[in-house]
Amino acid sequence: MCVMRFHSINVNSNNFAQVDNDFSSVDSDLPISNDISFISYQLLQDLCVGYGYSSGIEMVSECCNDDFLQEYAIKCGYVFSEDFLSVMDKHKINFIGKVDSTLTDLYGSFYHFLNELNENNGSTADLMNETTVSFSKRAYDLRAKCVCILQCNIIPVTIKSIFDSNVIDIKSEFRMSYSEMEKLFLYFVTNLEKIIMIKIMQCWRSFYDKRDLLSLIPEVDYSNPFVCARNFNGVTAPVINFPASFANKFGACISFMAIAKIDEMMSDFIDKCNYVLKKNIFHRCYCIFNRGSTVDDYVKELRDKFRLLLEEEFERKIIEEKVRYRFGNFLNDVLIWNNIEKIDRVFILNKIIEHMHDFLVNTGNSDLHNIIRFFQDGNKLGVYIHPDDDCKILSIRIKFSAKARKVVRDKFCAMLKEEYKFLDGTVIDIVDWVDISKKLSPVAHEAVKHLVDAERKELSTILSNAFVVEDICVFDGYSAGTRKATHEDIATITKNYIELVHTKNINLYSRVWMKLIVGKKHNMLKSLGVASEFVESGESVSSVTDNIVGSVATTDGDDSLMDSSSVKIEFPAIIWGLNLHREDYMSILGIKRKFSMQIRDHLTELFSGMYRRRTVLPSGRVLRKYSWDLISSELSEVAMKSLESINENRYTELVRFLAKARVVGVNDNSCSSCVFREITDDEKNHFMRSAREFIDKNSRVAIKTLWSRMVNKSFIRYGYKEKYQDIDIVDLEGSWGVKLRYSDNVAILNTRKKFSSKIRGFIYNKFSCIAENSRKFKSPNYIGEFSWFKVSKKLFPIAKNEASHILECERKELEGIISKARVVVDYKVDRSLTDKEKSTVLENIMDLVYRALKILFKRVWNDIIRCNVTANLSDNLIEVRDRVVANVSDIDSIIKSSPASVDIIELEEGYIKDGYRIRLCYEDDVAILNIRKKFSSEIHNCVGNIFSEMISKGYKFNDDTIVDKLSWRKVSKKIFPIIKKEIDPIIENERMKISDVLSESRACILSSDGSVSATVTRDLTSEERSFVLKNIMKYVYKRAIINLSRMWNKIIRLQSISLVDIKEPYRLEVDNIRLEFIGNLGAIVSDAIDTLSSGIDKILPNLEHINFNASNLANEKSRSLFKKGGFLSRVESLLSVAQVIDLYGKDRFITDEEKKRVLKEFLDIISSDVDCLVKKRVIEKFSDSSLQYK
User: Fold this and answer.
1) Would you say 559 and 606 are in contact if contact means Cβ atoms under 8 Å apart?
2) Lesser CB count within 10 Å: N end or C end of the chain?
């Protein structure tokens, strides 16, 4: 292609605007200038005149004329060749065809007007106003789609055509300069952009210019629908900041032509830099892999130093290739769209260099990995194969490895299922690989033999045309230093490769077997019952509805009530604002525990039953395993209403107990005695108000916790979950190794609950004695009231040993249940367990029991610590941390030997000063923890609001880029400085609050060698306060940074689009498909119900069971209809063109990821519709029978 030039155009002008460069520094040797006097701002405006929503009809002849490009050339002094004009004309015709196809939707705006006009509904003027509004909205939507087509399909080929063209003047032929190419590109693309609005207006005029319409409303001018729509309904055009030929890249708005040229220049530089870098790595690897035994160390050193090598090479090439000069010189010729006429080309240059650097780092790391693997494989195969051929060999290894894994796994599963007998007469069993490898390896080798043969054939095909590296020093990664592989090379490679395959296969057998038996051993964890998990995890009442669990019988009679009698001091327990006698406090805890267990059991049964019955919630949604956020408002109210009777009984029992409760007060005359009195009416009312608030709050917590556990663990009935895979067969996936009946699982659950309660009470007493007596072990340290993780190593073996007789009784009772249990085979058949199955089930259950003991012991210990802490009363008393009374002389000696001017050493449990361990008192620890929780919540709310606002309003950073829903790793560098300014004052307030607490805190001093059996308290020194505060705030900053990442990722997930976010026309069409599909389900639902009810006279199930099974059966068949009936393809096709409104009010197409999410949501709705239809048909069919829902 060529262009004929008559004369050149001088693009410089004395009238161009000047821009000061006060905000950037330019090296004196760079050709970059922020002075834009050589670029005509007016010229840029002239080239792109009419972009956006300009709709003047006068543009038609200019843009649609076949000679518009030639006319532009004549104005510029050119004559384009016919070949060039023909190619450009094809681009234009191609684009116009796509625009016409896209704008066909505009004609739908006129249907309403014509229909209403024919039926004489409303005035003609009102109908025309409504039509302009509808037309304008559709036009704005479709124009954006046409611009997307222009940028994605037309601009790339246009750029290539212009780059390939030449210029011819009268004397000679030569290429156009870049400036001339860019102006031609902007002119051509802007005219194509204007064609969009021309076509839109032609569509309007084809409707508006009818004679009969003009005669009906002669007093109003509807020639411009956009003006009428704005006046009538306030519909305005979306804001367009720059023409379609421009895009934001490298921190500036530059043309696609400039972007393409910059990409070409960057690619050229990166190729040169990468070539030298790869050659350097090849040389180093050659030296390393010829050193012998120290290869791994040198490879690690090369990996560690690679980044430094890359940086050095990059900087060297930047200077050697004069990158800054070449790119700077080019940027002077680039047209930049900037309305404020202030351009920082140095900033753009730095962005380009930064982009090249990042790209080189990515490719360099990949090349380093490939080159090292090339040498490693060369050592293994005996010959250095060309990297391209090595990649082909790697691909077949991956392919056949995946096939071998499946074959081996299927073989092992079949052997286990069939109880395979080896040649020596032993039967396969679930044991470690080392114990069975000698027997299983030959079987696995035989199973994959055909795959090894097939892999050898494909390897031979690749090696027949492969190249090997002959001279590693000359090899450049391409062809230098290579030769074609000889027969000897192929034989060597094949022999070594097959040996490697056998070695890798043996490792594969081991991995497959170990993964298989681990899955078998822990299969029951996948389908545990809700209530079971609560008991065994130790999350009994305390974690769901209460914070403290205790068990003491209530006192009877009024003998304990005293008006003023003094007794030996009993430290009170504070609960809901009252200092109650410790016995009364424990009695209240017993009441809380009893009713909390009732709530847990009730909610477990409620949720399981609602799920099995496919209960329809008030919103019409069928209950499924939805996340809590989706159904919390509905399910919470249903559950709370069902708990009313239980909570009322609790209130009644609390009121009855308060009538004889005792309030404790310390005698003013003596700190060694206290007085008891009755509770007053005001105190009783305040107590009950607090109790009601607490019970209501924790009941809601229990509802959420129980539902979330049921969903997350994927269980509905205790012991197993059900999956329907066939029409007539129910595949029951066992939790104990086999699938037991529901009644057997319930019996196992009740047994575990019973013995768990016994163990809890027994261990509670043991731990209480340990805490009271500060029992001493072989270690000189005491078991004081520390957190569980600090004392678990000492306490757990003792507790497990103490509970061993209870565990043995539990084992025997479980063994009796399992001996009578039966295995569910299918829907109608069950069988007895074999001896081996009985043993497996028992061991699996006991394994779960033992694992749950740790959590149970932990919670019991924490309960005791919380109860005992309330007894620490007065600073005037010498409070011994571990409840051990020491001689005054011993205490004095400890205090005297603990001066304030010694060095501090931080330990896990405090600090050491001159041989004595110092810890903060428990009360101070709790106070600091509460402060941290409070400010952590404040930071969470503050940051959450900022993140949400940034995303919703499209926050613009200093580099003019706009925040996007990317991962925290990609946006943290820009967002973190903003967030840090906001949270720094909060953290500073937190530091001051903690400092205030530390100023009044007391240190517990414990002899580090255990020579003195006492712990005493004293004030912290200023040095200790400073040190503790520093360590606490260090941890606070660390947690704050971690939480920022979690909050950001959570917010961008929550703001992802769903079906309701799609624009209304597409959403209505999706709903029409749904209704059409539901209309075809009648026969399927009826067939599913008939299939399952055919034997109803024999088995007499309840309606709940029929409904549950029929729903699964109907869903299975409906999925087949949804695919084969074309409904799925219709929905996918619709979603591929569906649009949503983005953060800036503009329309955009949904991404592939969003499409998958919306499609899944749609399929869930379909499934709910099927369930509703099944339930309705089941009720209709059996309404007159004796069957009923249970």
Assistant:
1) no
2) C
Beta strand pairing call for 2-5 and 166-169 = parallel
Tokens of 1073: 């498909």
Residues 1047 and 1070 in one domain: no
Task: Establish if 895 belongs to a structural domain.
Answer: yes
Residues 920 and 994 in one domain: yes
Q: Is residue 22 located within the same domain as residue 87?
A: no
Domain boundary (873, 904, 930) is at: 873
CA separation (Å) from 1127 to 91, 1111, 1112, 1157, 1171?
36, 20, 20, 17, 19
- Is residue 1048 included in any domain, yes or no? yes
Domain boundary among 351, 381, 411: 381
Sign of CA dihedral 935, 939, 942, 945: negative
Which are the contacts of 327, defined by CB distance < 8 A and separation ≥ 6? 262, 265, 349, 352, 353
pLDDT at 828: 55
Same domain, 302 and 413: no
pTM over 0.85: no
Domain shared by 821 and 927, yes or no: no
With beta carbons less than 8 A apart as the criterion, state whether 963 and 978 touch: no
- What is the 3-state secondary structure of 783-842? CCCCCHHHHHHHHHHHHHHHCHHHHHHHHHHHHHHHHHCEEECCCCCEEECCHHHHHHHH
Q: Which domain holds residue 596?
A: 529-717
Count of domains observed in the chain: 7
Assess whether 921 and 829 both reside in one domain.
no
For 395-437, how does the pLDDT look when each residue is reduced to its tens digit (9 = 90+)? 788 888 888 888 988 888 888 888 888 877 788 887 878 778 8
DSSP labels for 54-71? ---TTHHHHHH-TTHHHH
Contact (Cβ atoms closer than 8 angstroms) between residue 238 and residue 143 = no
Structure tokens given for 236: 């305005």
Cα 931 to Cα 676, 903, 980, 992, 1029: the distances in Å are 34, 28, 20, 10, 13
Residue pLDDT, tens place only, 920-966: 776 777 788 788 888 888 888 888 888 877 876 777 777 777 777 67
**395 torsion bin: left (phi>0), alpha (psi -120 to 50), beta (else):** alpha
**Is there a domain that residue 883 lies in?**
no
- Indicate if 703 and 751 belong to the same structural domain: no
**Claim to verify: residue 777 and residue 693 sit in the same structural domain:** no
pLDDT digits (tens, 9 = 90+) for 837-887: 888 888 888 888 888 888 888 888 877 766 554 444 333 223 333 333 333
H runs (alpha helix) in 419-448: 433-447
Is residue 27 domain-resident?
A: yes
